[in-house]
Design goal:
Layout (H helix, E strand, L loop, with lengths): L15 H31 L2 H7 L6 H5 L1 H4 L2
């Protein structure tokens, strides 16, 4: 004998706590990434123009360089 189920589990919503924990995790990840990028900008700003040239970065392009994967500038 065969059994056929017509339940659609894709419509099941995650629990409230699971949603809250997922949102909190995304927030912490965003904060950590922002701090990391801020640290990278500060490290590059401390460098001399000659050191920056070794990376192929001009001083006015530091922020663009750090966020190049986000803004595609």
């Amino acid at each position: 004998m065969a059994f056929l189920s017509t339940s659609d589990f894709s419509a099941v919503r995650p629990s409230f706590l699971k949603t809250v924990f997922a949102a909190t995790g995304r927030w912490f990840t965003a904060v950590m990434e922002a701090n990391s990028r801020q640290d990278q900008v500060q490290r590059l700003q401390i460098m001399s123009d000659t050191q920056l040239a070794e990376f192929g970065v001009r001083r006015e392009d530091i922020v663009r360089y750090v966020f190049r994967d986000v803004y595609h500038l």
